[in-house]
Amino acid sequence: MKRLLSFILPMLILTSCATNDGQSSDNASNNSSQTIKPGDNDVLVAYFSVTNNTKKLATYAQEHLQSDIFEIVPNVKYTSADIDYNSDCRANKEQNDDKARPEIKYTISDISQYNTIILGYPIWWGQAPKILYTFIESYDLSNKTIIPFCTSGSSPIGSSATNLAKSAPNANWLDGKRFAGNTTKEEIGNWLDTYIKKEESMKLLIDNQELNVTWENNESVKALKKLLPLTIEMHEYGGFEQTGSIGQSIVRNDSQIDVVPGDIVLYNGNAISVFYHNSSWSYTRLGHINLDNSGLNNLLNKSSVTFVIKG
Ligand SMILES: Cc1cc2nc3c(=O)[nH]c(=O)nc-3n(C[C@H](O)[C@H](O)[C@H](O)COP(=O)(O)O)c2cc1C
Q1: Is residue 191 helix, strand or coil?
Q2: Average pLDDT over residues 51-78
Q3: Which helix (DSSP H) or strand (DSSP E) does residue 38 occupy?
Q4: Residue 34 CB less than 6 A away from ligand 1
Q5: Ligand 1 atom showing the smallest separation from residue 180 Cα
Q6: How far apart are CA 240 and CA 244, in angstroms?
Q7: Is 155 exposed, middle or buried (0-12, 13-18, 19+ CB in 10 A)?
Q8: 175 near 144, Cβ under 8 Å?
Q9: In terms of domains, do 252 and 152 share one?
Q10: Which region, left, alpha or beta, applies to residue 91 given φ > 0 means left and ψ of -120 to 50 means alpha?
Q11: In a domain, 256, yes or no
Q12: Which domain-ending residue is among 200, 222, 243?
C-alpha cells in the first residue's frame, strides 16, 4: 500500500497541475548566504537531464556565471521506454528503490577546486532521480556550497533538495528553486543574481554600530563568510589598531602593505585587525570601513571593542 501511494501521490500533483507549466517556482528552504560572482573560477554547474529541459537551464547558468559545467551522464543511457512513467519503467523502479544508485560514466577529476556547485536535476515522482544520490555520495562535499535547482512538469522542488542534502550533511545547502522547462536565460540569470546580492550584504557592527564597508573580493573574505555570524572581542594594540582572534586559521595571501584608518585586515591568518591610524605590516586585506578619521577614532580608540560580522 505504501509503495502504491508513493507512486500515486506525486502523479496526482503532476496531472492536476499539468497545464501550469509556465511560471510556478518555489524555494526549498530559508537557508541562504552569500556565495557567487560571475567569473569566479570556483563555481561548477553540475546537472542531470534526460529530455534536455534541465540541460538547457544548466547551460544558461554556466553562461551567466562563466563557470565550468559537468553533465552527470549515466553509464547506461535512459531510453524513452526507461522514462515512460505510466509503465513499470526503469525510472519508476529506481525511484521506488531506496538502494538504487545508477552508475555515472564520468567523474570530476578534482572537485576540490570548486567551492560552489549549482546542482540541476529533473523531478521524478516528487524527488531527485536516484543518480543524483550516486553523484552526491561519490565526492567529499564538506564545506562546499550547493545551490540546487530542478525542472518539472509542475511539481515544486518540495523535499527533493532537503532529502538530497541528507546525503551530504556537511555541505552548505542554500535555497533551491523549481523552474519550468521554458524558463528563459534572463530568468536564470536573475535567480543567480539573488545570491550575488546576498553576498554584498555582509554586515559589520562594532560595538553595535552598523558600518558601511567595502569588502575585498578575495579567498580570505570568502572563507570568512563561511564562519558567519562571527563575534570577535578585540583589544587595542599599539595606539593604532583593534585586534582579536578569529579562533581558527583561514586562507591568507599576506604581503607587506601600508594600512590607513578604516582598513580591515587578516593578521597571521587567524586574527582580524581594524585600524584608526596608519601602520605597515604583512597582512591580507579584507575590507575598508567608509568612515572619516574622527568617527574611526571615536569608535576604535578605546581599550576594547566587540566586532561582529553577520551574513
Ligand atoms: C519518471 C518521471 C517522473 C516524473 N515525475 C514528475 C513529478 O512528480 N512531477 C512533475 O511535475 N514532473 C514529473 N516529471 C516530469 C519531469 O520532471 C520534467 O519533464 C523535467 O523537466 C524533465 O527534465 P529533463 O528534460 O532535464 O530530463 C517526471 C518525469 C519522469 C520521466
Answers
A1: helix
A2: 96
A3: none
A4: no
A5: 21
A6: 14
A7: buried
A8: no
A9: no
A10: alpha
A11: yes
A12: 200
Closest CA to 100 of 133, 125, 68: 133
- Of 28 and 191, the one with more pLDDT: 191
Per the domain annotation, does 104 fall within a domain?
yes
276 assigned to some structural domain: yes
Q: Which amino acid is at 172?
A: N
Rounded to the nearest 10 degrees, how much is the dihedral formed by the CA atoms of 83, 84, 86, 91?
-20
Q: Are residues 56 and 82 in the same domain?
A: yes
Angle at which helices 185-200 and 53-65 pack, to 10 degrees?
50
Residue 166 has pLDDT above 70, yes or no: yes
* pLDDT tens by residue, 118-146: 999 999 999 999 999 999 999 999 988 89
Could you tell me the three cell numbers for 261?
584608518
- 140 CA to centre of ligand 1 in angstroms: 28
* Nearest alpha-carbon partner for 253 in 217, 305, 299, 291: 217
Place of cell 552526491: 136
Q: And the C-alpha cell for 84?
A: 515512460
Closest approach atom of ligand 1 to CA 92: 1
Whole-angstrom distance, CA of residue 107 vs CA of residue 71: 10
Residue nearest to atom 16 of ligand 1 (CA): 152
**Ligand 1 site, residue 50, Cβ cutoff 6 A:** yes
Q: Does the structure show a pLDDT above 90 at 93?
A: yes
Residue 212 in any domain: the answer is: yes
Decide: 238 and 278 in contact? Cβ < 8 Å.
no
Amino acid residing at 45: V
CA atoms of 123 and 150, how far apart (whole Å): 6
